[in-house]
Amino acid sequence: MPDHDTYDRLISLLDSASVDYKLIDHEPEGTTEAVSALRGHAVSEAAKCIVLRVKVDRRTTRHVLAVVPGDRRVDLDAVKTLYAARYVGFSDAETAERLARAVPGTVLPFSFDPELELVADPAVVALPRLYFNAARLDRSLSLSGTDYERVAQPRVERVASPAPA
């Protein structure tokens, strides 16, 4: 498991912004459905964080961290339209880990890398309580969607679609 620099940076950011957050310790888990059950909340209140590779043109690739409610999926066509891109797909694990500064299953709905653009679905920032792994498999955090939007400052755009049945 990597060191906890990203976790420490998150806590420092939230403390300096006077955010009312709650830490939740639990068994190590990185899947949205399982960790939501451990934390005791609906999957729809979780932040699902996906790193995407966006090819705008032949020479320009952008990396986007899309944040959607845990019971939904990222709408790749919506992201493609949003960026007027030729292609949108999931980033490879190595790039995602480097840019998100966290291992899969612990990616924060925050970006600490200027190369990683943050886009959150409006349903995420509207949540009274938002839950996510805090850059660790064994610890999560909850805060209000309003505080999340104020501190993370994501671009708020519709990027979620219903999960397949």
TrEMBL record:
Q: Where is the YbaK/aminoacyl-tRNA synthetase-associated domain?
A: 26-150
Highest taxon listed in the record's lineage: Bacteria
Q: What's the protein here called?
A: YbaK/prolyl-tRNA synthetase associated domain-containing protein
